[in-house]
Structure formats: C-alpha cells, structure tokens
Amino acid sequence: TLGALFVAILVAKSGVDIAWPGLNQVSDAGASAAITEKMLGIARDVPGVISVHDFRSRYIGNDLQVNLHIVVDAGMTLLAAHDLSEEVERRLIDCGENVTDALVHVDPYDPSKAKED
Predict the structure, then answer these.
(1) pTM, whole model, 2 decimals?
(2) CB neighbours of 102 closer than 8 A, spacing ≥ 6?
(3) Backbone dihedral region of 105: left (phi > 0), alpha (psi from -120 to 50 degrees) or beta?
(4) Where is 95: in which H helix or E strand?
(5) Who's near 12: CB < 8 A, 6+ residues apart?
(6) Contact 95, 60 (CB under 8 A)
(7) DSSP 3-state assignment of 117?
(8) Segment holding 87, helix H or strand E
(9) What is the pLDDT of residues 11-46, one digit of tens each?
(10) Structure confidence by residue, pLDDT tens digits, 39-67
C-alpha cells in the first residue's frame, strides 16, 4: 500500500504539472514575469523608443495578445511615429512567445509626465 500511495502522489503531481499551464491560459492569465521582461526589452531596444509603460498581456488559448505604450520624441512626425510603432509590433510578434497581436500606443515625450515600467 505504501508503494501505491507513492505512485498515486507521483501521478497527481504529474497531472498538476501538466494541467497548470493550460489552466492559466484559459483563465485570462497574462505572460510570466520572464516573458514580460523579454518583451519590454524588445520594445525598449527599438531605436527611437525612449521608454515603455502600461504593458498588459493576455493569453487566449496558446496565443498571447499584448498592449503597451511607447514614448517617442514629441518632434517626431506622425508617419515616423506610426512606422516606429509598427516596428515594435513586428518585433514582438516575431519574438517567439506566440504573440499574435500587439497593440502599440504612441505617447509623445513630456518630461513632466514621464513614466516607465
């Protein structure tokens, strides 16, 4: 009976290990801290991005949707700011974390309202 109890515990632990990621995804969980930091780094590394804030993510099944704000030079043209937001979006979708949609909002740099993650 001791052996059977041990096997039952192993089976239960394996079940939890297998089910936990799936339960997180179907319960509108966001990306882990490691994935969030990876994506914030990707966005910050795009030339022209001053800072990133208001990052949010949400799993829908295996797909990850992200929303974030990038801060850019206030003197940047609308076309350049739009192109920059599309570059951030492209890099996030290509980052290998199943990002299927990235909504990138552009904020002009205002030193009196500067905020970062």
Answers:
(1) 0.72
(2) 65, 66, 67, 68, 88, 89, 92, 93
(3) beta
(4) none
(5) none
(6) no
(7) coil
(8) helix 78-93
(9) 888 887 777 666 655 556 889 999 999 999 999 999
(10) 999 999 999 999 999 999 999 888 999 99
